[in-house]
Design a protein that fits this description.
CATH topology: Pnp Oxidase, Chain A
Radius of gyration: 15 Å
CATH superfamily: Electron Transport, Fmn-binding Protein, Chain A
CATH class: Mainly Beta
Helix content: 25-40%
Number of domains: 1
Structural class: alpha+beta
Largest sheet: 8 strands, antiparallel
Shape: globular
Distance between the termini: 21 Å
CATH architecture: Roll
Number of helices: 5
Low-confidence stretches: none
Order of helices and strands: HEEEEHEEHHEEH
Number of strands: 8
């Protein structure tokens, strides 16, 4: 699978799902990964937008160390190893003030059930700025994808 095909498959998988597993660097157990379920939407450029509570452990982790990985897997039945999966690596931080309205609208368009949480002062949109991703698209179809090939 060429880099171009990998990138296209990765973009489709990311756009086709709405939740993944967010891994952050743990504050509680220094250096250990900490994983949590994370609904997401996509920014205009195709980067994950997260709506995070300031009380959540993953948010506290990101404030201390913004490095993160969002793992997304193709939906389906059967063996999970047979389905495409994507690990998106980047740095997550609060959405810039100028982009807050659009980020909130994009997130709520994807997850309308989150309207009540978004209205609480404790929840804020975060952007996972992609640095690189790794896609496993099936047997013999795996590889790293550069930021420039994923982000539009």
């Amino acid at each position: 699978m060429t880099s171009r095909h990998l990138a296209g498959a990765a973009r489709r998988l990311l756009a086709g799902r709405g939740e993944g597993v967010l891994a952050t660097v743990s504050l509680h157990r220094a250096g250990f990964p900490f994983a949590s379920l994370a609904p997401y939407a996509l920014s205009r450029a195709g980067e994950p937008l997260l709506l995070l509570s300031g009380l959540a452990q993953h948010t506290r982790n990101l404030r201390a160390d913004p490095r993160a990985c969002l793992f997304v897997q193709e939906a389906g039945q059967g063996a999970s190893q047979d389905r495409a999966r994507l690990a998106v690596l980047g740095r997550a931080g609060p959405v810039a003030a100028a982009d807050l309205e659009e980020a909130r609208a994009r997130y709520l368009a994807r997850h309308p059930e989150a309207e009540a949480w978004a209205a609480l002062g404790d929840f804020a949109p975060y952007l996972l700025a992609i640095e690189e991703a790794h896609l496993v698209g099936g047997f013999g179809q795996a590889g790293w994808i550069a930021r420039g090939d994923l982000v539009t």
